[in-house]
Please model this.
Amino acid sequence: MKRIYVFASAMLFLVACKNETRKTTPELDGIHSEEAPVGASGIEADTTSINVDQDKPYVVASTNEIAPVSDAMMENAVIYEANIRQYSSEGTFNTFTADIPKLKALGVKIIWLMPVFPISETKRKATGGGFASEIEDPKERAKMLGSYYAVSDYTAINPEFGTLQDFKNLVTTAHNNNMYVILDWVPNHTGWDHKWITEHPDYYTKDKSGEISEALNNDGTLAGWADVADLNYDNPDMRKAMIADMKYWVTQEGVDGFRCDVAGSVPLDFWEIAIPELRQEKPLFMLAEAEEPELLKANLFDMVYAWKGHALMNDIAQGKKKITDWENYETKLFSDYESDDILMNFVTNHDENSWNGTVTERMGDASELMLAYSYIVPGMPLIYSGQEYDLDHRLKFFEKDSIGRTSGKMWAVLEKLGQLKATNPALNGGKKKASSLKFDTGNDNVLYVTRNKGKNSIAFLGNFSSQPQSFQIMKASYLDYMANTDFKMENGTVHLKPWEYKILIRK
Model:
């Protein structure tokens, strides 16, 4: 066996300094079945679904002080997307707040709250694609709560979730537990009830007939989001008002940053003004729902989505591509991004779950392998509400649903992965990433890669196929991290079951 090349991601880490800002616009079987209660991680599945509330107690710190957002924090952070409406049967801030201390066990450092603002009644979306107003039965109509992304007031709280004081308590509890809170911000459009519609119609894009337009794509075509109105970034007063509303949450309510919806559809020169002005108040963590590299330039956003990597994981799991295609993806990262750029790696999120399918639907028996790999590749891994509780249904988007908060297999898997991410610098994935080396296995279905930083090293072995695979690695004494046992091989030969993976730490 020979080392054939430095992994493309390692090349990414060694790129030169930033360019100038550009112009606008475990023993793993990998099988999830009733016949195989032991999961791919070697952690026995909890088939009795014990409620996590009965697990070990978590201690809340006694102070609400938290260190400022820093680059060091981003190196080993896990980000958690909180869907307050669907997190519990109550669908409130208070229920989620009570569970925040538990997230420490998963290595969570950043809580991303899906939009917490009031939702417009006008053109409120309903399940099935129509509007709630079109439903004749008042009881059925009342079930339609609309899209979180049709905001009617940027500086108020959705009463569906609780009160402003409840929100404050959530932020304080997160800070007490050394977690940062970022708000999902919707800068591209508002709901049709927003006061700007009547008070400042010039804040919006107008169609040919002079009427306010629904949301548009970058090319001017309709985006298909009829429940929201398109904002006009040619208006400097609207820009000032937007920044002022964002600043309110930073200065008055203590949030630590923003996840900005469709950030690539907002002119880059707005972010070039808004983000530095916001950061004058305090250090912030900024996540863009986008993949455009220019959004990361000049200390604007800290992180963007790894959309292409996510799509490739789906394709590999479905047999459409092989893990060897990951090399081309890494090479593209090297050409597009710079050494201190951070990508968010994920196997699910609110859009994927509701519209494209559950992790099991999309990834099948490869689900846990792909999850583990999302922690191994450089960047920051995402947990979406319910993922830790084995969520296996598509959550309704426009009406009440619930993830079902009982512990099963995935809590233990995420806890092990989170602990490794938090404590071993070899998984650093921020602005000073650990390096990566890929090794030649002679097998196009198998990946053997190491992450290295200082004296710390972790090896990841994965069978990215539905057939058993064997390959050679260097003989050494390893700990099988997920199973917490010695790793055994036959004369340097490793045998992996379908979709099986190993995370190895050299003794």
